[in-house]
Amino acid sequence: MSSVGTFQLVLPSFPSSSSSSFTNTTLSLRPLPFPTSPLQRHPHLNRNLQHFDAISLQHRSKSGRNFGSFPCFSALSPELKRTIDKVVTSEKVVLFMKGSKDFPQCGFSHTVVQILKSLNVHFETINILENELLRQGLKEYSSWPTFPQLYIDGEFFGGCDITVEAYKSGELQEVLEKAMCS
Amino acid sequence: MGVTKEQLESTLTSKLNPQHLEVTDTSGGCGASFVVDIVSEQFEGKRLLQRHRLVNAALEEEMKQIHALSIKKALTPQQWTQQQEESEKSKSAA
Q1: Hey, is B86 helix, strand or coil?
Q2: pTM over cut 0.90
């Protein structure tokens, strides 16, 4: 069995409703706060994300696996995969990025936001900095090591370089148009 | 810590047998950010996404330490020759 010490380090935060029970020592070691403002505008996504935080917790305590420090762990549980399936199909265009649409926290994410804005398409953004589990799980889900990750019509389209290239060649516009009509 | 330009070059050379390869360290020394131009026959018949996936897969180990890898060009030898000819032309026209 894996060591309890490192196991505690990677515990995600709980929904605030259970705050009264927050007396354990792991609280100050939480890696990231629970997804907040941008997601609360989108109850569907928010519910999904809460769902997999809870699930991954159960999953871990059952399996007793150490997710935080093994190089060969799998961050993508079947439950998380199903949740991401739902999220990427909840909107025609979904961008997983660092920061938010209005405040990108990375140059590459900023670039993709600017492209999508310039094309006047409606798109949803999800800040992966707010959820470490989602961030790690998505890398496996998309088989893509970095962010941003752009999904169109439920399918992984690419990262920043690919989006820029496709924008220049006009392919992005075509794919988006097709997605909007479907 | 970090990865060197030479490490990336040797991994890419052995795995993708590139005809042309240019790795630029854009990290300012910490080895966490690179720009790659690569021309390989293995890209033949593959879309850009698949080409990028090949590069990412080749650099799987290195990616753990790299923060940003920007693949500016991932071309087939044919595309590469074509691009060079075009840039030659525009140079001589200028």
Answers
A1: helix
A2: no
Q: In angstroms, rounded to a whole number, what is the distance separating the alpha carbons of residues B80 and B76?
A: 6
Scanning the structure block, which residue is given the tokens 């649409």?
A101
Residues of A in contact with B72 (CB under 8 A): 161
B23-49: pLDDT as tens digits: 999 988 777 899 999 999 999 999 999
Phi/psi of residue A95, each to 5°? -120, 120
Structure tokens at B27: 């990290």
Residue of A146, A151, A152, A174 to mutate, interface with B, max B Cβ within 10 Å: A146
How many CB atoms are located within 10 Å of the residue A65 CB?
Answer: 15
User: Residues for chain B: how many in total?
Assistant: 94
Taking an 8 Å cut-off on Cβ atoms, the answer to whether B48 and A146 are in contact is: no
Write the DSSP assignment of A16-70 as a string of letters: GGGGGGTTSGGGGG-SSPPP-HHHHT-HHHHHHHHHHHHHHHHHHHHH---TTT-
Contacts of A165 in chain B (CB under 8 A): 48
